[in-house]
User: Fold this.
Amino acid sequence: MLSKTPIFVLVDCNNFYASCERVANPSLEGKPLVVLSNNDGIIVARSNEVKALGIPMGAPLFKCKDVLQNAGARVFSSNYELYDDLSGRVISVLKTFTDNVEVYSIDEAFMEIADLPVEKYTDFGNAIREKVKLETGIPVSVGIAGTKTLAKAASELAKKNKQYGGVLSFVGLSELEIDAFLSKLPVEDVWGIGRQYTKLLNAHNVTNALEFKNLYPAFVKKKMTVGGLRTQMELKGVSCFELEMGVSPKKGICSSRSFGKPVTEITGLREAVSVYVSRACEKLRSQGSVAAGISVFILTSRFVDRQKKYFGVRHKKLLSYTNSTAIFIESAFDILARIFRQGYLYKKAGVFIYDIKQDTSYQHSLFNYANNEKFSRLSGLVDDINRRHGKESVFYASSGCTRDWRMSRKYLSSEDVFGIKLFATAK
DNA sequence: TCTGGGGTCCTAGGACCC
DNA sequence: TCTGGGGTCCTAGGACCC
Assistant:
């Protein structure tokens, strides 16, 4: 018997960043290993050995440095060039099975399949797992079911329960059999249920996915809006989320970073804001869009006394749509001058570009910038040069040359946080 | 000393219009 | 002056995702 309805396959890379470091450097295999966030602040990826130590996702490095060192763990800054590259390779392998691949995130993809006999799906999952491992070195978990949320649930269970061998398929199972699996999945591991909803549900004695599935829909709708209701429907096997293959243009583009060390003067902030605006505008142009809104924000550390804390933000509407870095930088500097207060230790700044439209659809304004066209061509030229000759071959002088506020990435590839030497990362 | 970054969707409430 | 409904658009804020 063939499956009647479309079947979703979720492929989830295990401990993705940690696995990437191992692909780049096989001598790390079997050793405890973590990868840090930007600025080497918190832990964003852990190998299984580190998970076993009880170190949670998102833990600040300074709080668990001792535990990690005692366990002989290796600690790395994140290396997004490497992760992007390997992510692309994994997707290429998936596309050899079907064209229906939705790239959901850097380490996850949904596939849609319709024409296999129901008993063949587990084999299909195993084939994916083996081929991805063989051709990229990345271990993955696979979940297969009639809805995206159930496929996610299956992959969670596959990842956490060794006996499934990394693949779990709900296809062909009775509702009762699926319920048995859902009762083993903590409600906080359901896709769409985060920290706040978990708290709410726990307070109503709902602790696993099955209990959530059996809640009154009216209660779910009232407390968790239609999003929660859709999640519940999906657990019941009613598909509410389709496969989304096209890349839709961003509706808002944010660029922000914490500083490697605090900035006190407006000159440093101007450099940073200039860099972030350049980055955001580059993204804007690369998706063929223009925009007419910009926000700038600056803030101090969250971990200081109240009187030393400051958060400044302001928005500005431009007179017309543009994608010119120069025009956005000018506006950003206006805003910055208004929100800057002397006497604070700034830890982070960022810009947000909004009110985005596709290039072709915007109306020319009566008050169009006199030099909009010219600036646009200039920005396009800058993008070309940077594509050809590498990032930031050309940049705005306002972005500065010293940039001593730059984020730190101290443990990139060659030497980790404990000073242990490694081979250079293969690229 | 050291605590990430970049998105999406939904709702409530206010402004404004007829 | 007061009374009222119904609609749209926009924004802020809160939830979620990885």
Notes: Chain A has 13 helices and twelve strands.
